[in-house]
Structures are given as structure tokens and as C-alpha cells.
């Protein structure tokens, strides 16, 4: 009777969502893809449906392959679907848990989100930062003109300098900037620390207590060094703003305006410090991927490029660069920006959420503590929503029956939805519009005159980037060249 009772009490209230058969103890570990996981999850979706579950070493993973499920669960039931998974190595030991993206759902989360909303959450709040974007993007054009082969570096540099100026009023040095370097290092170490299966301590948390000198505990030295990089990433730019404020010469920035309140508690100061660091770490790498995707798409789809250029020529003319005020008059460029965000999404699997209460959805059991992954790539390539989804075709968003705006999906869902989406959208627009106005982007040709076909291939990881591809970037005309040189 006792055993029967036990059996009865542990039986789930409903079946788990379907998925590949799990082995005892290790579950689906051996099934888990290690590269471009979104593609495997999409393939599995064809077998198991939109709503799937996996078990990895006892951890339930829920995969959502449709926007309907993502909205119904992460948005409509957001009071229980808004936590983040616990990451022992990256979060606890290295210290990333204090940044917004890994902060558990709760009061601290709410106060950082509130700061973000006030600073960059609305069209009017970001308006004051648009001139910085325009100025820095104009400089970007000049760098590209001078060294087109280094396009990927120019994109990264520009995104970094925009976000550092907005967050801290810090103007990046032209060559090797110490703050940019420390942030690049920290974000790279974050990827290493969160690589699935890289650290045993994520599976056996007690290993956290082993002493550093023990054979095999080298990872602890690594963790300590990564933790120092993270501390520098957070403190160095903050010290800069504080020094500037003390000297009365601080440029306007998000951190400066938040720190201006003379009655801040120590806790509020700490929250501001981490909010600013979250802004930088969330904003530096993401728009970079989207803008590089834009260059890839323009290399592959010359007819789209010509159409967008014709629109800019007609609306803006050739005597000045486009600006944010032109946006409402450039419907094709607007559609092109949407297609950049849809065609190869920056975060193909979003950022995982964690469920804080047991739930039953569509008759399936989601136990408390499950990690929920939205397959944003699949949602943006769902044939029920997008026709010929692998094609780059901005026209899908125009006409009498436009397809669904991808910005409803590509920035995630519910209370965790990307707080930088308005800023990201503005940055991507201005980069696309200004680049189209002055450059012809085309396939590169080798020394023998053979065309170098770019391949559409993307890196794995939370933020996915196009792998480097050959392309040719030239000023559209002598007038365009003069405009770039005079623009800053
Ligand atoms: C094309 C550009 C971008 C894309 C596609 C993107 C996408 C996303 C996604 C999918 C999430 C997770 C949402 C969820 O959990 O459901 C996220 C979170 C976040 N994003 Fe973005 N993002 C972009 C740009 C930015 C920018 C420019 C910033 C900062 C200025 C930023 C800051 C953040 C932060 C701090 C979070 C964590 C939010 C939280 O956990 O509450 N992102 N983003």
C-alpha cells in the first residue's frame, strides 16, 4: 500500500509533452545537438509537433516551436514563466547572475527593468540618442570606404562605440580602446562559461567547494580570472562616469542621469552599476550580427538592394545621408529591416526562461523548474506565417496582406522581452539606410575574375553571427564618396 501510495503521489498530473525517447538517468543527453540546435529542434518538431519536451540529466527542457505557444505560455502566463535557469559556473561562480539577462525573477529584476524602461523603453526616451547613432554610423561609412575588407570589424567597433557613449558618455578611442577590449574579453568568456557541457560543476554543484589546488580543479583558476574580467567590465566604465561627474564634465548618458539622484542607497547604486553593464553586454554583440546579416543579404540579393536604393534616391536624394526622420517615408527600407531580423535571427533560440510553478498546458505537464526554450528561428521560418521563408524578400511585409512583423517574435516574449528592442531597431535602420544610400554591395571577384559565392552559414551560440563571407563594397558614385568623406 505504501509503495502504491508513493507511486500515486509522484505520478505527474498529465503527460509530459512528446519528444525523443529518454534513456534512464542521462535522459536525452546523447540526442542533444551541439551545433545550430535550432535546426535540430525544428526537424524534431516535424516529428513531435510544436510542443516538445526533453530530459537532460534530470532537467526537463520544453521546446516551443510555434509563436502561438510562446505567447500563450511566456506572455499570458508570465507570472510563472519569467525566471531564468540557474547557471552555476557563469552565473554564480563567475558572477554574471547580477546582469539583467541572468537575474532571477523578483524585486531586483523589476527595479532593473524599470530603469531600462525609463532610459530606452519608449520611442521618446530613445529620441535623444538618435543623433549619436547617426554621427557614429556616418563615421562607420568612412571606415568601410577606407577598408571595406574589414567590414565585420567596423560593424563591431561602431556598435560598441554607440552603446558605450549612450550608457556612459564614453567616447571610444580610434585604436585599441581599453574599455572595448575588456568588454569583448568578458563577453567572450561568458560564451565559454555558458557553453553546454563545458563545466562539470553545472551538473554537480557541490564541486564548487573543491579547493583550487586539487588536480583537475584548474577550472577554478579560470573562473577566478573570468570573474576579475567581469568586475573590470562593470567597474571601469562606471568609475569613468563618476570621475567625470565629480569634475562636473560628464557628458549626458544613461548612467549619469540615473546617478544624478543625490539620495541613492548603496543598493540602488549597485543596481545602476549592473543595469549599465547589462545594457552594454546585451547591446554590443546583437545589433552587430543583424547588420552583418544585412551586408550578407545585400551581397546575395542585388535586386532587393537596387529597389531600396531607388526608394532612398527618390525620397532623400543624393545630397545628404538618410536620417531617422526619413524612416516613415521609406516603406521598402522599413520592410528590409524587418526581413533582416527575420531571415536569420540574431538569437535563434532566444534566452531560456524557467518555470516557477507546476503548470498544465494543452493537456501537457510542465513541472516547476523546467527550462523553456523558444525556437525563434522556427517561428520566423514557420510556413504557416511566412511564405518561402528561406528567401530574403522584404516585399512579404508590403501590399494588402503583409506577413506578420517579426519584431513581435525576434525579441523574445513576456516580461523578459528584450528591453533594448527600440534602440536595436533604430540602430539597424540607420545602418541599413545609410549604407544603401552610398554603397554598392556585391559579390567579390578573385584575381582571375571568378565570382566568389558567399555561403549563408551562421555560428552556434545564444547570439548567432554570419560566418565571414567575401563581398565587394564600393561607393555608388563620386558624389556618394564625397558625401561619406564630408558627412561626420
Ligand atoms: C537585433 C538586436 C537584438 C535582438 C534580436 C535581441 C533579442 C533579445 C532576446 C530574444 C532576449 C531574450 C528575451 C526573452 O527572454 O524572452 C533579449 C534580452 C535582453 N536584451 Fe536584447 N536583443 C537585441 C538587442 C539588444 C540591445 C541593443 C540591448 C541593449 C541596449 C539589449 C539588451 C537586452 C537585455 C539586457 C536582455 C535581458 C532581459 C531580461 O532578462 O529581462 N538587447 N534580447
From TrEMBL:
Domain of life according to the entry: Eukaryota
CDD domains: CYP64-like
SUPFAM superfamilies cross-referenced by the UniProt entry: Cytochrome P450
Binding-site residues, heme: 418
GO molecular function: heme binding; iron ion binding; monooxygenase activity; oxidoreductase activity, acting on paired donors, with incorporation or reduction of molecular oxygen
UniProt-listed Gene3D superfamilies: Cytochrome P450
Pathway noted in the entry: Secondary metabolite biosynthesis
Alphabetized InterPro entries for the sequence: Cyt_P450, Cyt_P450_CS, Cyt_P450_E_grp-I, Cyt_P450_sf, Cytochrome_P450_fung
Keywords of the record: Heme, Iron, Metal-binding, Monooxygenase, Oxidoreductase, Signal
Cofactor requirement: heme
Pfam families assigned to the protein according to its UniProt record, in alphabetical order: p450
Family, per entry: Belongs to the cytochrome P450 family.
Protein name per the record: Cytochrome P450
Amino acid at each position: 500500500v505504501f509503495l502504491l501510495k508513493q507511486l500515486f503521489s509522484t505520478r505527474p498530473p498529465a503527460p509530459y509533452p512528446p519528444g525523443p525517447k529518454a534513456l534512464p538517468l542521462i535522459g536525452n543527453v546523447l540526442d542533444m545537438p551541439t551545433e545550430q540546435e535550432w535546426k535540430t529542434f525544428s526537424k524534431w518538431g516535424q516529428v513531435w509537433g510544436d510542443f516538445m519536451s526533453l530530459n537532460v540529466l534530470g532537467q526537463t527542457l520544453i521546446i516551443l516551436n510555434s509563436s502561438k505557444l510562446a505567447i500563450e505560455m511566456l506572455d499570458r502566463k508570465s507570472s510563472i514563466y519569467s525566471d531564468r535557469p540557474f547557471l552555476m559556473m557563469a552565473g554564480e561562480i563567475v558572477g554574471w547572475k547580477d546582469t539583467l539577462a541572468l537575474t532571477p525573477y523578483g524585486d531586483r529584476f523589476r527595479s532593473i527593468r524599470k530603469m531600462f524602461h525609463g532610459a530606452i523603453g519608449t520611442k521618446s526616451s530613445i529620441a535623444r540618442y538618435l543623433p549619436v547613432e547617426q554621427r557614429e554610423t556616418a563615421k562607420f561609412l568612412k571606415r568601410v570606404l577606407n577598408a571595406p575588407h574589414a567590414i565585420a570589424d567596423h560593424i563591431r567597433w561602431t556598435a560598441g562605440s554607440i552603446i558605450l557613449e549612450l550608457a556612459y558618455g564614453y567616447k571610444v578611442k580610434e585604436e585599441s580602446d581599453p574599455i572595448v577590449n575588456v568588454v569583448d574579453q568578458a563577453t567572450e568568456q561568458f560564451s565559454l562559461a555558458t557553453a553546454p557541457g563545458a563545466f562539470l560543476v553545472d551538473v554537480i554543484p557541490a564541486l564548487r567547494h573543491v579547493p583550487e589546488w586539487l588536480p583537475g580543479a584548474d577550472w577554478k583558476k579560470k573562473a577566478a580570472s573570468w570573474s576579475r574580467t567581469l568586475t573590470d567590465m562593470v567597474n571601469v566604465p562606471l568609475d569613468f562616469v563618476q570621475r567625470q561627474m565629480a569634475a562636473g564634465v560628464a557628458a549626458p548618458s544613461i548612467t549619469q542621469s540615473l546617478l544624478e539622484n543625490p539620495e541613492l542607497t548603496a543598493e540602488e547604486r549597485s543596481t545602476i552599476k549592473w543595469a549599465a553593464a547589462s545594457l552594454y553586454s546585451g547591446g554590443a554583440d546583437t545589433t552587430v550580427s543583424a547588420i552583418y546579416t544585412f551586408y550578407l543579404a545585400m551581397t546575395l540579393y542585388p535586386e532587393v538592394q537596387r529597389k531600396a536604393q531607388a526608394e532612398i534616391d527618390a525620397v532623400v536624394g543624393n545630397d545628404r545621408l538618410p536620417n531617422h526622420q526619413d524612416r516613415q517615408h521609406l516603406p521598402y527600407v522599413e520592410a528590409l529591416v524587418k526581413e533582416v531580423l527575420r531571415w536569420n535571427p540574431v538569437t535563434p533560440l532566444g534566452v531560456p526562461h524557467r518555470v516557477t510553478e507546476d503548470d498544465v498546458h494543452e493537456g501537457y505537464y510542465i513541472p516547476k523548474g523546467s527550462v523553456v526554450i523558444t525556437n525563434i528561428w522556427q517561428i520566423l521560418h514557420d510556413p504557416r506565417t511566412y511564405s518561402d521563408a528561406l528567401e530574403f524578400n522584404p516585399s512579404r511585409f508590403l501590399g494588402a496582406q503583409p506577413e506578420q512583423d517579426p519584431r513581435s517574435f525576434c525579441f523574445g516574449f513576456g516580461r523578459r522581452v528584450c528591453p533594448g528592442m527600440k534602440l536595436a531597431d533604430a540602430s539597424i535602420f540607420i545602418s541599413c539606410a545609410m549604407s544603401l544610400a552610398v554603397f554598392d554591395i556585391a559579390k567579390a571577384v578573385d584575381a582571375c575574375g571568378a565570382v566568389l559565392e558567399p555561403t549563408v552559414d551562421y555560428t552556434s551560440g545564444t547570439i548567432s553571427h554570419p560566418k565571414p563571407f567575401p563581398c565587394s563594397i564600393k561607393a555608388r558614385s563620386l558624389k556618394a564618396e564625397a558625401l561619406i568623406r564630408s558627412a561626420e
